[in-house]
Amino acid sequence: MSLQFDHETLGQRVLFGSGEAAQNLAAEISRLDAKNVMVVAGDFELPMARQVAADIDVKVWHSNVVMHVPIETAEEARSVAKENDIDVVVCVGGGSTTGLAKAIAMTTALPIIAVPTTYAGSEATNVWGLTEAARKTTGVDNKVLPVTVIYDSALTMSLPVEMSVASGLNGLAHCIDSLWGPKADPINAAMAAEGIRALSAGLPKIVADAQDVDGRDEALYGAYLAAVSFASAGSGLHHKICHVLGGTFNLPHAQTHATVLPYVLAFNAPYAPQAEQRAAAAFGSATALEGLQQLRAQVGAPQRLSDYGFTAAGIPEAVEIILEKVPANNPRTVTEENLTALLTTALNGDDPATLN
Ligand code: NAD
């Protein structure tokens, strides 16, 4: 087998340990010799952030976190960082909170220590997102990649099961989409496959018992691998679709990913045999779709886009915008007709197998 690829590995320190976040954060603050620390955490995440920061001096707490990072909140947080002569930003929370810390780093180049509490995976990517005049823009900049990620599954115990499932399937979508993303390569695929294995092992344990440490650890570990493979492979068809559904139709991020994933998998799989086999093996099932559908049934995954406010009236506009963004190397040619069928099937929660 001849191999030829161009892979970039992003440099980041990862500290993983259940119940260890406070200790690991104090050690990192000392290693970075940080004096003026800003902690970013949404109102709901603030109590967790106070626990995590129990052993460090915090100069300023900042909790004005809004999903999809409106530019006004980014500018406010940047001013707070400047006024307080901040030298490190610590973010404790989900992807929205990490996103605000990234917005600060974009213009200040301040280092971020990320302490994620969902499976969104933003902490392991160099991708930023901002919303200005109701339009979400994203970009890639190594300045926004957190220097350190501190994973502590104890902080995820409070994530409701339903949100854990949606967020974990968002992680799984990173894995699957990276198998055919624009810069898919064997290194990404190795991480994505292990991510699929870990997430599909962890999520059923969380559903059975939300406090299961092993399940929570596996899901967090899988979410990290998912994000690393995704950051390297780039956005594939699945992410292009979900980005439009989230950005233009304001659908919730994790639930949208969780719902759309089987449809994109069914759509692309027959045209991407290597990716399909890799995912099937990682699920331990005969086909990738069978593995995903078994897992979805086991964890009670979100079923249809109509449950999240999407309607048939939005399909033509969504199709038009998505068609402009489809990656050139998507395994299957995407047309107005087959994309309309994909979105209609996902809207109604019909059997994805009808797409292949
Ligand atoms: P979120 O950060 O909006 O969190 C969802 C809800 O869960 C919030 O109300 C939050 O307060 C709550 N929550 C978080 N942790 C909790 C916990 N441990 N216990 C109880 N509740 C908790 O949602 P998300 O899915 O984590 O992130 C979505 C955002 O992240 C989107 O804006 C998305 O675009 C972005 N994102 C960016 C990247 C990237 O690489 N840049 C990757 C993935 C997601």
Automatic annotation (TrEMBL):
SUPFAM superfamilies this protein is in? Dehydroquinate synthase-like
- Keyword Hydrolase in the entry? The reply is no
Q: Which Pfam families match?
A: ADH_Fe_C, Fe-ADH
Family annotation (InterPro entries): ADH_Fe/GldA, ADH_Fe_C, Alcohol_dehydrogenase_Fe, MAR
EC number(s) stated in the UniProt entry for this protein: 1.3.1.32
Q: Identify which top EC class this enzyme belongs to.
A: oxidoreductase
Annotated Alcohol dehydrogenase iron-type/glycerol dehydrogenase GldA domain ranges read 12-152
Domain (Fe-containing alcohol dehydrogenase-like C-terminal): give its ranges: 165-346
Q: Which UniProt keywords apply?
A: NAD, Oxidoreductase
Q: Which GO terms describe its molecular function?
A: alcohol dehydrogenase (NAD+) activity; maleylacetate reductase activity; metal ion binding
The similarity comment for this entry is:
Belongs to the iron-containing alcohol dehydrogenase family.
* Protein's name in the database: Alcohol dehydrogenase IV
